[in-house]
Amino acid sequence: MNPAFKKYLLKVTKSSACEELVVIQSLWSGYGKISRYKLHNSSHPTVVIKHIALNQANAHPRGWNTGKSHERKVKSYEVETYWYEKWSQLCSPDSRIPNFIGTFSQGKDQWIIIEDLNKRYPVRKHEINLLEVKACLKWLANFHATFLANEPKGLWKVGTYWNLETRPDEFELIENKELKSKAHLIDERLNNCKYQTIVHGDAKLANFCFSEDGQQIAGVDFQYVGGGCGMKDVAYFLSSCLTSSDCELYETELLNFYFSEFRKVFDSATFPFAFKDLEIEWRQMYPFAYTDFIRFLLGWMPSHQKINKYNLKLMDLVLSRL
User: Fold this and answer.
1) CATH number for the domain that contains residue 95
2) CA 77 to CA 275: how far, in whole Å?
3) What confidence tens digit (pLDDT) does each residue in 163-193 have?
């Protein structure tokens, strides 16, 4: 361990010693790792440390190792650090995230120290049932309602990792001519929504931690948090955990559930507009949000399993409206 960081870690956690227990995962394209550390004589028995090592980056697994890609990743780690430092404490208990402990940087190395969620949220899922889907949608509804009408200061102006402006290389490879010609119109429609919030930006199933009963949720990974319409997170999340047929079957039920949970938070606060106006706009944006993500996939990996009959149908619907 870097001696300067170790000194900081022991100081900020009031520990006498530390040791790495396990590497939870490597960061994309070799930009570092996430590890669990054991602390001695500290109020934190364990912590999770995200070590970003920009000088260790290697080739992207799909060949996207361009200068634009590197710049995007560097900014994403800056955004995530700012998120934890300045924004994370505003999350409600119903949009639980790891508590921020500290951050340290030296040269091209950076470390983010956060709470270890494993005791209360030990389960990671690859498949979920309908109740667990709703538990995640409740998290998203609370997250979006909490940050409704907030300017994303210090975050991405437009959240999500597939944002059109930051993905010019993938855009150039889109073969669907109609989608390519209308991609900017879709992007403008979403970005010019009257009702904006802060979106997670990478709200896939893998970024949610579950309690043993599957009903308590915590979210992680905030590299692409920023401004946007909440439907971007909802569409992307559903694409990460439901089949095409299930999306078709449960679309109305799940959107109704999301908005009912959103309204509970909305009604407990004061906003200068009616909830029904937001709901009307965002329901109209749902197919646009799906199409925006599919636009990215069709340039990045046209054979991706997330491209299916359901979302292609939504894409055709959107294209016919423009």
Assistant:
1) 3.30.200.20
2) 34
3) 999 999 999 999 999 999 999 999 999 999 9
Cα 54 to Cα 56: distance, rounded to the nearest angstrom:
5
**Structural domains counted in the chain:** 2
Residue corresponding to tokens 């983010």: 112
68 and 140 share a domain?
no
| CA–CA dist 34, 47 (Å, integer) | 10
What Å distances lie between residue 27 and 45, 60, 221, 233, CA to CA? 24, 11, 11, 22
The whole-angstrom separation of Cα 170 and Cα 24 is 29
User: In which band, very low, low, confident or very high, does the pLDDT at 120 lie, cut at 50, 70 and 90?
Assistant: very high
| Residue numbers of the domain that contains 37 | 3-116
- Quote the pLDDT of residue 65: 57
Same structural domain for residues 97 and 136? Answer: no
Residue 54 falls inside a structural domain = yes
Instruction: Kindly list the distances between the CA atom of residue 306 and the CA atoms of 164, 200, 236, in Å, as whole numbers in the listed order.
Output: 18, 19, 10
CA angle (210, 214, 215) in 5-degree steps: 100
Are the beta carbons of 36 and 48 closer than 8 angstroms?
yes
CATH value at residue 208: 3.90.1200.10
Compute the distance between CA of residue 105 and CA of residue 112 in angstroms, rounded to an integer: 9
